[in-house]
Amino acid sequence: MGYPIAHSLSPVMFNAAFAELDMDWAYLAWRVKPGDLHAALEGARSMGLAGANLTIPLKEMALEWMDVLSPEARVIGAVNCVAVREDKLYGFNTDGEGFLSSLREDAGFEPRGKRVLVVGAGGAARAVAFALGRSGCGSLTVANRTVSRAESLAEHVREATGTVTAGIGLDGSVLGKAVAESELLVQTSPVGMYPEDIIPDWFDPGWLDPGSMLVDIIYRPRPTALLRKAAELGCSTLDGLGMLVHQAALGFEIWAGGKAPVKVMRDAAIDYLAEFK
Ligand code: NAP
Fold first, then answer.
1. What's the CA-to-centroid distance between 105 and ligand 1, angstroms?
2. Following DSSP, what letter does each residue of 84-123 receive, concatenated?
3. CATH superfamily of 10-93
4. Per-residue pLDDT tens for 107-143?
5. Which of 25, 44, 56, 116 could pair covalently with 49 via S-S, beta carbons 3.0-4.6 A apart?
6. What residues flank ligand 1, with Cβ below 6 Å?
């Protein structure tokens, strides 16, 4: 459920997984206006659906309709996966864990003890920042256009996880130093998203340490202009498709149990994305 919901990759990923495992299940995308979310969730409950994914702009407002919240959904303040169990609505957030799974499994990067910089302080940044804090990263700096949001997210992560954190703006002199000092940088702003294949004008790739790891969680285009430049400079890079696939795989496991066929889901998403080239 989302609003808008056209071009969601989720139906192709899930329906490919169901076909692969010969499951008599179906996943449909529903365009649900924010004012109709409560009714839609009650409909899911009363019709006995297994659950639902929620995307923009429904993730935060769903909190109040959940009977049970996972620790991740509570601390992130957003629900992206709902499970209907024994007539109750369980709210989860799999974005942060999906990000970590992709970082570890797709890039072979372990964030424990590392100096991390997250650019952006929106919904995706919250999930990523809390997951990194809980993973035991060494320090976490949040950089955001609206500095107060960076400071507030940094403070919440510090309170929730005990991580050493800081919040900064996108001013070159401050951001450049933070980029140069980071071992892992995660770009979560939408700048560079299809069809705008550009490097953010507030980011100088020359700041990057060639030994660092750069993740851009955008998956359309993949890779982004920023990731292409970073790879040219010798950085390790990871795009956002793995995060999307792994958060979906975790949803599959919440609803259906067992292991999700991650490769099948990834291949289905890649085929679908090829239409946007
Ligand atoms: P969001 O809640 O709207 O947050 C957007 C963030 O980007 C805010 O911190 C905003 O700063 C900043 N921003 C927006 N435009 C900017 C600009 N021109 N210059 C600098 N900063 C700017 O969005 P979101 O849900 O976090 O999503 C962000 C991106 O992540 C999207 O591209 C989305 O597709 C992607 N995403 C990927 C996955 C995945 O699975 N790979 C999952 C979720 C999201 P202010 O606070 O100053 O407004």
1. 24
2. EETTEEEEE--HHHHHHHIIIIIT----BT-EEEEE--SH
3. Leucine Dehydrogenase, chain A, domain 1 (3.40.50.10860)
4. 999 999 999 999 999 999 999 999 999 999 999 999 9
5. 44
6. 56, 95, 120-125, 144-146, 149, 188-191, 193, 217-219, 240, 243-244, 247
CA of 55 to the centre of ligand 1 (A): 13
CB atoms within 10 A of CB 46: 10
Atom index in ligand 1 nearest the CA of residue 124 equals 26
Whether CATH 3.40.50.2000 fits 96-241: no
Task: Clarify whether 277 is annotated catalytic.
Answer: no
Tokens at 25, concatenated: 């299940």
| Contact between residue 196 and residue 130 where contact means Cβ atoms under 8 Å apart | no
Residues in the chain: 277
Q: What is the pTM of this model?
A: 0.97
Identify the DSSP state of 186: E
21 CA distance to ligand 1 centroid (A)?
34
